[in-house]
Each structure stands twice: as structure tokens, then as C-alpha cells.
TrEMBL record:
Annotated ranges, domain PurE: 119-251
GO function terms (MF aspect): hydrolase activity
Matching Pfam families: AIRC (PF00731)
SUPFAM superfamilies: N5-CAIR mutase (phosphoribosylaminoimidazole carboxylase, PurE) (SSF52255)
GO biological process, one term: 'de novo' IMP biosynthetic process
Name of the protein in its database record: Nickel pincer cofactor biosynthesis protein LarB
InterPro entries: P2CMN_synthase_LarB, PurE_dom
């Protein structure tokens, strides 16, 4: 939507020929910016509360730069780029204000720490090998305005490590359980907590793990109530969903 179109909408609201609610709905459906190789949705934050997220895998460095630059010109902060290679991150760093984490392969343009939810999100991993996926979730949630507490390497092979952190489990508004192998961590946490648990199966494991399929099926068949499951290695999806839940409010801070 061009500035003139927005101005005319505002005039109609001022003249009481259009209600504020009707004007807002029109703004939510405004056109995107067509770059040829991408159509950048600048009103995503108006509709969903957060700006568009750039999936980095499969895009050229120049394409990612073009999309991020377009969003930057519209004043967007905390522009998340997932699955960003180190080589492309180096390319972008010369042209944008980029924060990059090589562990999770998350890039954030114009990073700004601004907590907009009072509750906390706990992210727990079964093992150290699950940390890359967990950090994808953690950095996503932090960029979206959440307090994040990391509990890493607290899996069922030494479950006393999880019990040692029960204070954090019971005070969380949302918990993300990240695990490979047999994926049992989500069920254990689900049985110990009174908040939503988002299970993230990872591709960590030996041959019969089938690239995370065994953990995925185990989490889908969890007997603990309140456990939902995202796709294999989808830390971003878990962090985004946890942020949405946390921003709905909660009993804890």
C-alpha cells in the first residue's frame, strides 16, 4: 500500500466514513514489495505481531541481502534469518548490522533486546549434541521479546540432572524440550510441569534413530498431557510458537 493510499484511509477515519477497525483490516491486507525473486511482506508485523522471517537455506547471499535490506529500509528490527551459512553471514556483515551465531546458524539484523512478555521460556536438551537446535529456538524466542532460560544436557540417561532444576521447570510459562535418540525428555518434562511443553525431535542418534524419526514418533505418542510436537530439528518453529504462547500472558514472571 502506497503512502497516498494510507493517507486516504486516515482521512476517511478522520471524517468518520470509515471505522478504525475497517481501516486496520485494510492495512493488514496491504500489498507486498515485489523484488522479482521475493515478495516481501512488510505488514506481517501488523497482522501477526512480528516481521517476516527469512529462511536462509536455498537462497543466494544476494537474495538474502535484498530481502533484509528491504525490511531494514522499512525500519524493521530483529530481522531473523534462519539456516544462515557462515560464508553468507560474512557477506551480509559488511552491509548490514548483523548478529550471527554459528552454532544455531541464526542471523539477526538490527538486533535489539526488548522483553515484551513477562513470563519465561525454559529450553531443555537431552544432550549437548542437541544444543544447535535448542539455540535456534532460544535465539528466536529472545528476538521475539522473551526471557529464555537454558537447561542443557539434562536428559533421561542422568535424570537427576533434570530434577535438580525443578524450580525452573515449575516456574516456566512454556517449556521447549529438545532431544534426539528415543526422545523421552518431552514426556518426562510433560509429567512434571503444569505449562505447555513443545517437543522438538532432533536428528541426533545412531542408525535406528532414522535421522530423528524415532524421536518424532516417540514424542507424538507421548502419554503426558499438554505436549505438542514440531518437526525434526525445527528449533525455529518451537521458539516462535513458545513466544506466541508466552505473550498470551501467564501466572509467572
Amino acid at each position: 500500500m502506497e503512502q497516498q493510499d494510507i493517507f486516504e484511509l486516515l482521512v476517511k477515519v478522520q471524517e468518520h466514513t470509515l471505522s478504525p477497525e475497517e481501516a486496520l483490516n485494510k492495512l493488514k491486507l496491504s500489498p507486498f514489495e515485489d523484488l522479482g525473486y521475493a515478495k516481501v511482506d512488510h505488514h506481517r508485523s501488523l497482522r501477526q505481531g512480528t516481521c517476516e522471517v527469512i529462511y536462509g537455506a536455498g537462497k543466494t547471499p544476494e537474495q538474502i541481502l535484498g530481502i533484509a535490506t528491504s525490511m531494514d529500509k522499512h525500519g524493521e528490527t530483529n530481522i531473523i534469518i534462519t539456516r544462515l551459512s557462515e560464508q553468507t553471514a560474512d557477506f551480509l556483515s559488511d552491509k548490514l548490522q548483523l548478529f550471527y551465531d554459528s552454532t544455531s546458524k541464526i542471523g539477526i539484523v538490527n538486533r535489539k533486546i526488548n522483553y515484551t512478555a513477562s513470563g519465561s521460556i525454559v529450553i531443555a536438551t537431552g544432550g549437548t549434541s542437541d544444543i544447535p537446535v535448542a539455540e535456534e529456538a532460544a535465539l528466536t524466542a529472545e528476538a521475539l521479546g522473551n526471557h529464555v532460560l537454558r537447561l542443557y544436557d539434562v536428559g533421561v540417561s542422568g535424570v537427576q540432572r533434570l530434577f535438580h532444576n525443578m524450580e525452573f521447570i515449575t516456574n516456566a510459562n512454556v517449556i521447549i524440550a529438545v532431544a534426539g535418540m528415543e526422545g523421552a525428555l518431552a514426556s518426562i518434562i510433560g509429567g512434571l510441569s503444569d505449562c505447555p511443553v513443545i517437543a522438538v525431535p532432533t536428528s541426533v542418534g545412531y542408525g535406528a534413530n532414522f535421522g530423528g524419526l524415532s524421536a518424532l514418533l516417540a514424542m507424538l505418542n507421548s502419554c503426558a498431557s499438554g505436549v505438542s510436537v514440531v518437526n525434526i530439528d525445527n528449533g525455529f518453529g518451537a521458539g516462535y510458537l513458545a513466544s506466541m504462547i508466552n505473550h498470551m500472558g501467564g501466572k509467572k514472571s
